[in-house]
Amino acid sequence: MIYLILAVLASTMVSVVMRLSTGKVKNNMSMLAGNYVVCTLLSVVNAGGNLLTPAEALPGTVGMGIINGVLYLFSFLLLHYNMKRNGVVLASTFMKLGLLVSMAVSVIFFREVPGVIQWVGFVIAVGAIILINYEKGSDTGTSGGRMWLIVLLVVAGFGDSMAKVFETFGDTAYSGQFFVYTFLTDLAACIVLALRGKEKPSLKEIGYGLALGVPNFFSARLLLKSIEHLPAVLVYPTVSVAIILVVTMVGLVFFKEQLKKRQLIGIGAILVALVLLNL
User: Fold this and answer.
1) Would you kindly state where each structural domain of the chain is located, as residue ranges?
2) What letter does residue 61 receive in the DSSP assignment?
3) How many CA atoms lie within 13 A of 260 on its CB side?
4) Half-sphere exposure of residue 265: CA atoms within 13 angstroms, side-chain side
5) What are the 10-residue block averages of pLDDT along the chain, 279 residues in total?
6) d(CA 44, CA 170)
């Protein structure tokens, strides 16, 4: 359970750094490249400086690491695209609802079936996510717009599921190397996209990227550790709604954000969901 709590706190710090960078960073790819430099270096340290893996562990470590990296970055690009096309509210909601895919993968492919009480908690959690992020008039109005929201939901969900896939089919003794290849893939892609966009990173963007890298690495690493010790059907929804709860509290206390009535109801529902999910 300690890994689960630490994963939530690390993910919360990612959201806080992203919140602080809003309006201050113009070159997102440059910031992300700085973030992935830190993530890669921390992964190398976590791997004990050893990037070599036995031949039998190579496909699971390198192959899954690259796939994980592609899904990570693709999720971010889809989120960014949907924010511009469909608005921040819908894009954020559908990305959070990616846990529907993660849960489906765990139930269908890994036979991790929640009990009745956990199912109730899961349904309440999904309802709370929608309630907190719901805004009147936020419908896209176009089938094309809705399609890209669904793509975001699916990609984000499969991205989260890779931790369970690696825990099952890979060798967790080489989890450090797995993350090295994950973040190296993202770093290479971000550098290419930054150069293609002719971005000229400032010290501010590099600084935010470096600050983002530390919690981002630990968020991914601790999620995998959580799944090693707890069922994925418990980890995914618990992490998702707990992050929303903690980030909301941080917004209230440090950023003086105001909550609407429906959001307060949603927070109450999250508290109920967390209790039910962990019974």
Assistant:
1) 2-277
2) I
3) 8
4) 9
5) 91 86 81 93 88 71 92 89 76 83 91 90 89 64 71 92 91 89 94 87 87 94 93 89 85 79 86 85
6) 18
- Tell me if 125 sits within 8 A of 277, measured CB to CB: yes
Single out the residue of 119, 128, 157 nearest to residue 236, CA to CA: 157
Separation CA 74–CA 80 (nearest Å):
10
d(CA 277, CA 194): 41
pTM of the full structure: 0.85
In angstroms, the CA 82 to CA 91 distance is 5
CB 208 within 8 A of CB 30: no
Nearest to residue 80, comparing CAs of 136, 183, 156?
156
Report CA 269 to chain centroid distance, whole Å: 22
Tokens standing for 76?
A: 């971010």
Query: What count of residues does the chain have?
Result: 279
